[in-house]
UniProtKB/TrEMBL annotation:
Belongs to the peroxiredoxin family. Tpx subfamily. GO terms for molecular function: thioredoxin peroxidase activity. Disulfide bonds join C60-C94. It holds the Pfam family Redoxin. The active site is at C60 (cysteine sulfenic acid (-soh) intermediate). The gene is tpx. It comes from Treponema primitia (strain ATCC BAA-887 / DSM 12427 / ZAS-2). Keywords: Antioxidant, Disulfide bond, Oxidoreductase, Peroxidase, Redox-active center. Homodimer. This is Thiol peroxidase. The active site is a conserved redox-active cysteine residue, the peroxidatic cysteine (C(P)), which makes the nucleophilic attack on the peroxide substrate. The peroxide oxidizes the C(P)-SH to cysteine sulfenic acid (C(P)-SOH), which then reacts with another cysteine residue, the resolving cysteine (C(R)), to form a disulfide bridge. The disulfide is subsequently reduced by an appropriate electron donor to complete the catalytic cycle. In this atypical 2-Cys peroxiredoxin, C(R) is present in the same subunit to form an intramolecular disulfide. It catalyses: a hydroperoxide + [thioredoxin]-dithiol = an alcohol + [thioredoxin]-disulfide + H2O. The keyword Oxidoreductase applies.
Length: 171
Protein backbone atom coordinates (compact mmCIF):
# COMPACT_ATOMS: atom_id res chain seq x y z
CA UNK A 1 0.00 0.00 0.00
CA UNK A 2 1.34 3.40 -0.97
CA UNK A 3 0.92 6.45 1.20
CA UNK A 4 0.37 9.70 -0.65
CA UNK A 5 -0.80 13.09 0.48
CA UNK A 6 -3.70 15.26 -0.53
CA UNK A 7 -4.26 18.66 1.00
CA UNK A 8 -1.51 17.93 3.51
CA UNK A 9 -3.18 14.75 4.78
CA UNK A 10 -1.94 11.20 4.32
CA UNK A 11 -4.14 8.88 2.28
CA UNK A 12 -3.69 5.22 1.38
CA UNK A 13 -3.88 3.45 -1.93
CA UNK A 14 -4.86 -0.16 -2.54
CA UNK A 15 -1.30 -1.31 -3.11
CA UNK A 16 1.86 -0.50 -4.99
CA UNK A 17 2.48 0.19 -8.65
CA UNK A 18 3.53 -2.83 -10.73
CA UNK A 19 7.21 -3.68 -10.31
CA UNK A 20 9.74 -2.58 -12.89
CA UNK A 21 10.44 -5.46 -15.25
CA UNK A 22 7.11 -7.17 -14.53
CA UNK A 23 4.39 -7.79 -17.06
CA UNK A 24 1.68 -5.15 -16.72
CA UNK A 25 -1.70 -6.40 -15.50
CA UNK A 26 -4.23 -6.44 -18.33
CA UNK A 27 -7.33 -4.32 -17.90
CA UNK A 28 -10.73 -3.67 -19.37
CA UNK A 29 -11.50 0.06 -19.44
CA UNK A 30 -14.22 2.00 -21.25
CA UNK A 31 -13.57 4.42 -24.13
CA UNK A 32 -15.62 7.43 -25.25
CA UNK A 33 -17.93 5.26 -27.40
CA UNK A 34 -18.61 2.97 -24.41
CA UNK A 35 -16.45 0.24 -25.92
CA UNK A 36 -14.23 -2.02 -23.85
CA UNK A 37 -10.49 -1.59 -24.32
CA UNK A 38 -7.63 -3.80 -23.15
CA UNK A 39 -3.86 -3.65 -23.54
CA UNK A 40 -4.25 -5.71 -26.73
CA UNK A 41 -5.82 -2.67 -28.41
CA UNK A 42 -2.35 -1.10 -28.46
CA UNK A 43 -0.24 -4.17 -29.14
CA UNK A 44 3.33 -3.45 -30.24
CA UNK A 45 3.11 0.19 -29.14
CA UNK A 46 4.85 1.80 -26.21
CA UNK A 47 2.24 3.02 -23.76
CA UNK A 48 2.23 5.79 -21.17
CA UNK A 49 -0.55 5.28 -18.64
CA UNK A 50 -1.33 8.75 -17.30
CA UNK A 51 -3.45 7.87 -14.27
CA UNK A 52 -5.36 10.74 -12.65
CA UNK A 53 -8.16 11.27 -10.11
CA UNK A 54 -10.27 13.29 -12.60
CA UNK A 55 -9.68 15.08 -15.89
CA UNK A 56 -11.70 17.98 -14.50
CA UNK A 57 -9.17 19.26 -11.95
CA UNK A 58 -6.40 21.78 -12.64
CA UNK A 59 -3.40 19.46 -12.16
CA UNK A 60 -5.03 16.56 -14.03
CA UNK A 61 -6.07 18.83 -16.89
CA UNK A 62 -2.53 20.18 -17.14
CA UNK A 63 -1.18 16.62 -17.18
CA UNK A 64 -3.47 15.62 -20.06
CA UNK A 65 -2.59 18.77 -22.02
CA UNK A 66 1.15 18.34 -21.45
CA UNK A 67 1.28 14.69 -22.53
CA UNK A 68 -0.92 15.57 -25.52
CA UNK A 69 1.69 18.10 -26.70
CA UNK A 70 4.71 15.93 -25.91
CA UNK A 71 3.62 12.89 -27.94
CA UNK A 72 2.25 14.68 -30.98
CA UNK A 73 5.11 13.50 -33.20
CA UNK A 74 5.48 9.99 -31.77
CA UNK A 75 3.21 7.66 -33.85
CA UNK A 76 4.33 4.47 -32.06
CA UNK A 77 3.74 5.98 -28.62
CA UNK A 78 0.26 6.05 -27.13
CA UNK A 79 -0.86 7.88 -24.01
CA UNK A 80 -3.82 6.43 -22.18
CA UNK A 81 -5.48 8.93 -19.85
CA UNK A 82 -7.13 6.84 -17.14
CA UNK A 83 -9.56 8.09 -14.50
CA UNK A 84 -12.87 7.30 -12.82
CA UNK A 85 -14.61 10.04 -14.82
CA UNK A 86 -17.48 8.96 -17.03
CA UNK A 87 -16.43 8.50 -20.66
CA UNK A 88 -18.82 11.32 -21.67
CA UNK A 89 -17.05 13.78 -19.37
CA UNK A 90 -13.61 12.64 -20.55
CA UNK A 91 -14.62 13.02 -24.21
CA UNK A 92 -16.15 16.44 -23.60
CA UNK A 93 -12.97 17.60 -21.84
CA UNK A 94 -10.77 16.33 -24.69
CA UNK A 95 -12.99 17.92 -27.34
CA UNK A 96 -13.15 21.27 -25.52
CA UNK A 97 -9.37 21.29 -24.98
CA UNK A 98 -8.43 20.10 -28.48
CA UNK A 99 -6.83 16.93 -27.07
CA UNK A 100 -6.14 14.55 -29.95
CA UNK A 101 -3.13 12.52 -28.81
CA UNK A 102 -4.54 11.09 -25.58
CA UNK A 103 -6.93 8.18 -25.43
CA UNK A 104 -9.28 8.75 -22.49
CA UNK A 105 -10.33 5.62 -20.63
CA UNK A 106 -12.68 5.17 -17.69
CA UNK A 107 -12.84 2.43 -15.11
CA UNK A 108 -16.60 2.96 -14.79
CA UNK A 109 -17.60 -0.71 -15.34
CA UNK A 110 -14.76 -2.59 -13.72
CA UNK A 111 -12.95 -1.15 -10.71
CA UNK A 112 -10.17 -3.76 -10.84
CA UNK A 113 -7.76 -1.46 -12.72
CA UNK A 114 -7.23 0.70 -9.63
CA UNK A 115 -6.64 -2.31 -7.42
CA UNK A 116 -4.44 -4.19 -9.92
CA UNK A 117 -2.22 -1.16 -10.46
CA UNK A 118 -2.25 -0.19 -6.76
CA UNK A 119 -3.69 3.28 -7.41
CA UNK A 120 -7.21 3.07 -5.97
CA UNK A 121 -7.55 5.47 -3.04
CA UNK A 122 -9.00 3.48 -0.14
CA UNK A 123 -9.58 6.13 2.52
CA UNK A 124 -10.32 9.86 2.84
CA UNK A 125 -13.08 11.73 1.04
CA UNK A 126 -11.37 10.70 -2.24
CA UNK A 127 -11.88 6.97 -1.60
CA UNK A 128 -12.69 5.15 -4.83
CA UNK A 129 -10.83 7.57 -7.08
CA UNK A 130 -7.41 6.88 -8.56
CA UNK A 131 -4.23 8.46 -7.27
CA UNK A 132 -1.92 10.37 -9.62
CA UNK A 133 0.60 8.01 -11.19
CA UNK A 134 2.41 7.28 -14.44
CA UNK A 135 3.30 3.82 -15.71
CA UNK A 136 5.25 3.28 -18.94
CA UNK A 137 4.98 -0.04 -20.77
CA UNK A 138 7.21 -1.24 -23.57
CA UNK A 139 5.93 -2.95 -26.72
CA UNK A 140 5.56 -6.27 -24.85
CA UNK A 141 3.72 -4.65 -21.90
CA UNK A 142 6.72 -4.88 -19.59
CA UNK A 143 6.78 -2.12 -16.99
CA UNK A 144 9.78 0.11 -17.72
CA UNK A 145 8.93 3.15 -15.58
CA UNK A 146 6.61 4.01 -12.71
CA UNK A 147 5.91 7.05 -10.63
CA UNK A 148 3.41 7.24 -7.79
CA UNK A 149 3.19 11.00 -7.33
CA UNK A 150 3.76 11.62 -3.62
CA UNK A 151 1.26 14.48 -3.39
CA UNK A 152 -1.83 14.24 -5.57
CA UNK A 153 -1.78 18.02 -5.98
CA UNK A 154 1.57 17.85 -7.82
CA UNK A 155 2.17 16.96 -11.46
CA UNK A 156 4.09 13.86 -12.51
CA UNK A 157 7.70 13.96 -13.72
CA UNK A 158 6.95 14.40 -17.44
CA UNK A 159 10.59 14.35 -18.50
CA UNK A 160 11.37 11.05 -16.76
CA UNK A 161 8.24 9.34 -18.13
CA UNK A 162 8.90 10.57 -21.66
CA UNK A 163 12.57 9.57 -21.46
CA UNK A 164 11.56 6.04 -20.44
CA UNK A 165 8.98 5.86 -23.23
CA UNK A 166 11.43 7.09 -25.86
CA UNK A 167 14.05 4.62 -24.67
CA UNK A 168 11.50 1.83 -25.03
CA UNK A 169 10.69 3.07 -28.54
CA UNK A 170 14.37 2.91 -29.49
CA UNK A 171 14.62 -0.79 -28.63
Amino acid sequence: MALVTFGGKMIKTSGDLPALGSRAPDFCLVDGQLGDRTLDNWARKVKILNIVPSFDTPVCATSVRRFNQEVEKEPMLVVLGISCDLPFAQSRFCQNEGIRNIIPLSQMRDRSFGRDYGVEIVDSPMAGLLSRAVVVLDRENTVVYTQQVADIGNPPDYAAALEAARAALAK
